[in-house]
Amino acid sequence: MKNVWILAQTEADETSSHITSEPVTSEGQATTKVPSDFNAPPGGKEAPKPFFPPWLLLALAAVFIFMLFRGPRKKQKEHKKMVQSLEKNDKVRTIGGIIGTIVDVKDDEITLKIDESNNTKIKVAPSAIGRNLSKDKA
Fold first, then answer.
1. Which of 126, 103, 105, 132 is nearest to 115 (CA)?
2. Secondary structure of the chain in HEC code, one letter for each residue
3. pLDDT band at residue 132 under the 50/70/90 scheme
4. Where in the chain is the domain with CATH 2.30.30?
5. What percent of the chain has pLDDT above 70?
6. Which CATH number does 84-138 carry?
């Protein structure tokens, strides 16, 4: 097996892009010649550009992240404002569903009176207050 030939077919209208082959050398090596413009798209056109430019994708990601974190942050601010406006004798509901009247307000705890007949009181963290029922009715 002295000669190895590589056969390739090109499109009929492209006469400049031919793959050629040389016979096997004495060392048993075959060489193939490929034109420099062989991988270029037909007709000399450039490759199509991506649908979205990278900067547009980054802008969309930034807007998505902004919208994702904006809602919870807004709710936290509203809750903090509501907790800071709590006063004695306000009727509140905790996040656990307990309804009571505020007896005492401190920075780190709120005392609620939950039963008038037994004078039952509990202390809860300010973050445990879900709604101020006295101010929500208005």
1. 103
2. CCCCCCCCCCCCCCCCCCCEECCCCCCCCCCEECCCCCCCCHHHCCCCCCCCCHHHHHHHHHHHHHHHHHHHHHHHHHHHHHHHCCCCCCEEEECCCCEEEEEEECCCCEEEEEECCCCEEEEECHHHEEEEHHHHCC
3. very high
4. 84-138
5. 62
6. 2.30.30
Assigned token pair, 109 = 């705890």
Residues 6+ apart with CB under 8 A from 71: none
What average pLDDT does this structure show over 105-134? 93
Which tens digits make up the pLDDT trace of 55-84?
A: 888 999 999 999 999 989 999 999 999 999
∠ CA 67-69-70, nearest 5°, is: 65
Q: Are 29 and 8 within 8 A, CB to CB?
A: no
